[in-house]
Fold this protein.
Amino acid sequence: MTEEWELVSKATEFIAEEMGVALQRSALSPNIRERMDHSCAVVAPSGAIVAQAEHIPVHLGSFKVGVEQLLAALRSTSSEPGRREMILVNDPYITGTHLNDLMVLAPVHWRGSLVGFVTNKAHHVDVGGSVPGSLNPRAGDLFGEGVVVPPTTIVRASRLDAGAFRLLGSNVRDPEVARGDLEAQIAANRMGVARVRDLFDRFGKALVERSWEESRSRVSATVARALGRMRHGRFSAADAVELGPRMLPIRVSLRVSGAGVLADFQGTSEQVAAPLNAVLGVTYSATAFAVRAALAMTFPTNAGFYDRVQVRAPPGSLVNPDRPAPVSGGNVETSQRIADVVLEALAPSVPHPIPAASSGTMMNIMVGGRRASGRRWAYYETIGGGSGGRSSGNGVSGVHTNMTNTLNTPVEVAEKEYPLLFTSYALRPGSGGVGRFRGGDGLVRGFRLLEPATVSVISDRFYRGPPGRDGGASGRPGRVRLRFRNREKQMPSKFTVDLEPGAEIIVETPGGGGFGAPTRRPRRPSSPAG
Amino acid sequence: MLQRGSEVSLVLKRPTSSQEPSQAVLAALEELDDIAGGNLVHATTIGTNALLQGPERLSHGVSLVTTQGFRDVIEIGRQNRPSLYDLEFRRPRPLVARRDRYEVPERVTESGRVLVPLRRNSARRLAVSLRRAGARAVAVSLLHSYANPVHERRIAAELRSRVPFVSVSSEVAPEPREFERTSTVVVNAWLMPLVSQYISHLGGGLPKLGIGSASVMASSGGLVSLEEAATRPVQIIESGPAAGVVAAAETARRAGLSSIISFDMGGTTAKVGTVHDGRVGLTAELEVGGDSHHGRRGKGTGYPVRFPFVDLAEVSSGGGTMIRRDPNGTLTVGPESAGSAPGPICYGRGGTVPTLTDANLVTGVLAPTLLGGEMKLDRAAARRGFARMGDPLDVAEQALRLADLEMARALRMVTVERGLDPRHFTLVAFGGGGPQHAARLATELRMSTVLVPRHPGVFSSIGLLLADWRYEARMAFPKDLPRDLEALRRQLRRRFRAGRFSAAVECRYAGQGSELSVPLRTEDRRRVAREFERLHEVTFGFRLTRGVELVTLRLFGERSRPKPSFGFSPSSAGPTGTRTLRWMGRDLPLETFGRDGLARGARIRGPAAIDEYGSTTLVPPSWTATVLPDGLLRLERSSR
């Protein structure tokens, strides 16, 4: 039996994946069940990621950072979870994303000793704060973004701790939804714990641990081989996120060597008193995403990959803020720009061409209020845009790119759930940048309020569209219009507004950048990017 | 295959023609004697093949009519990409080109209220312009048409006098979620001209042969008439794979078992499905023409179709699945397959990469000759193939275990992920490879019983003769169960002569995004809700204090078909010899038997192998095989 490690590591990957299925299938909110805004992982006692199944890339590296920080926090207070206990946390300075992502960690004990952890993260639609949906464009600090949960024992003796939940439940708009989604997260971990214990029963501790180590070193070797094919040296790039009239620079200097990629964000804007700060976990995730995509190869995600990616981000900066700077939009918007600059910097290093920039915003829309019945509601949506043109053809239209891949909420589901009437959901023709290969087109999504509600938007790329590459033109920037009583108003990229019934919001997302100079475009009929 | 009375004989196997599949069927029927007065039951891959070839390969296009502002929903899909880290990702080409998408001013709300009325003029103008544009097939999908189909019907009425093929979403898939419903009706409209042509040619040729009626296997495992298939061709897309599960279900019923897992391992893939409480496990949606990754269909890789499909998880573990080392030196099984040409190394037809069949041969599971001695296998060549990757026996055994793990995962998808415990099921194994792996797979999942039917190699086609007629109708958000059921019954009776009905309701807690299917045993909403809550707890481990929503009411109308029985003439020839089995790193003596030489009630203790034409059943150590009265083999794990 020389090769049983392969069996064990495959079985471990399957556990992470099946946890994700269990979570999705039992969650209550459309955000998880329809949009799959959640991820799961199996972790070694050291905190090293053994296997993970992420549905959206912003969770990719945030597990590595989140688990390390959570375990350190638990150890420093000697509050490690015991058998049949689980820990809940959403403090972004620990989890590495934002308050909406609730992270639940469960220890796995086998024959009296700790043999690992299972964990998952899921985006809760509302975690309190002053706006429904909690992504608050006006937040000046973390406390304006919702309830902060430090590492807390949420499951005792295998059951949801009612007292701990009451504290959370009293701080969110729809405690019943929060409870449903949290129960789903707990159920997924419970399944994960049972399956990991089963793995130890079947293969024994020595073999499982050796296998986990082996799969880490195999992935590390795979990545090293790919790095060997890249141009080594220093590469830099810069771009910006928008805050009012200000452009906040994000600069990266990469050192690519056979051993790994080191991304240094020296020169990036200082942190701001607006929710655009990206905690270190987000910066790490976006960097890891760009590196992984640029490598253009498939391998299981585990610590062997993370070993090859390092990030240096100046403390107090937009990409590594000091607590309690607000961070909700850093996770969803600044993360996109970090991925953009790292991809841009990697372009001269990788052997194959990197596409032009994609939409570069998740276009977060939060709407909520109070129904006539008194029940509070919160609806969260992100809207896809155009992907950048690439050397192999036109970009794709109306799609989520880079750091997110959540599904939309169907119009028919949203209208049933919330007092909204949608007026359009369509491609935005001509928004993709021209070029030898055009950028994909953005989207138009419009809706009218049927009851009074608060509408918040956190988005970006309203001034500068996604840049083209090699002579391709930029995609058209995004915009949001508000129509009310025959008047129309252009809105900024980040706002919160209280609106009356009848008000209509029309959102247009950016097209992707073009690839190559347009004159070199081959003469053939353009096909709808598919 | 020919059924006379209750007797069945395997008669004829002919290749199909992709140009004119109906001609190939008729030509094959002409070769048979004495079939006048008979009926034809068949499965067809015409739908699957058309989808695999993709939209650009078909001569005709399809046009789409939607609510104003929403024509691009068919292209946007769920706005996700099929792979997270691939910067060169593509989405499947939209089935309708943008210039063929038409919008009409109209609007119905989620409650079914008409907010913007559809003017008769605009419906007529639309139909006229579609005819002028030369449209052959038109799909109509308006927002919330499942709640109120009045506008769709008005448009359809105008279109039907002007366009040959019209398909309306409220008739094909009346349920919420605009993209999936639109995709379903578009796929349906797109298949209509093809399937209609096939069926009219086939139907036209049958009377000359004296064949009275003909039916097609639907993806849900029931038979439907040719006319029904031509109206709703989306329902025959997975016609073939459904038959194996139907055969397993009927075998189980005859053996007195109500819950089984069907395990069909062929040359390129392994498929598993369930029968629970006597019902074949179904799924309400499938992405057709899409990719699957280790048995899981990738969201956004194909075209979603909302129709009942036999719930199958399929993984690339077949006899021809290739075993390699990746650049890291990690042993991998699949997904590439050597198929039957060049095939496994041991077939000696030019295969150079070892496959699972090669692994079963070198580890001693398979006999060195196949098909009752007609085919000699080259064991030495297979061994040399593995020797390039390390110790040949170690590598081969490890590959088999990796394949078992992959198949076990598929099996968990259709059980554990549906809230079912595989330990309460019996595994029914067939296909050439099923019986070789069944007991190992059962061990992996702690299942204790396996059944191997007779003729496992052709078991799936037998399923066609074991199926009943079954038609489906559904309704979104039922308000009054007795009244709504009656409406659906009336609708089904118009389509066919149903003998009995069975219903299920897809329910969820208000606010949830997906549903659980609750078999309907009562017409009382509160009891349905209670049953849902029980099922929710079994499946997910908790209940909520929240209202229960009945999302889709689904009714099946069924009628039984006279089914064949299978004769069994036992003998008792005793063991045929021995070979050496590689098992958990050790060599064990393996006693071998011929399946045709087993007596009723015979008990064979593992390690043993039972060889027959087209397959071999492995009885591993600590398993025992028993020959049941009707010739079924039952394998049981001895409890320690």
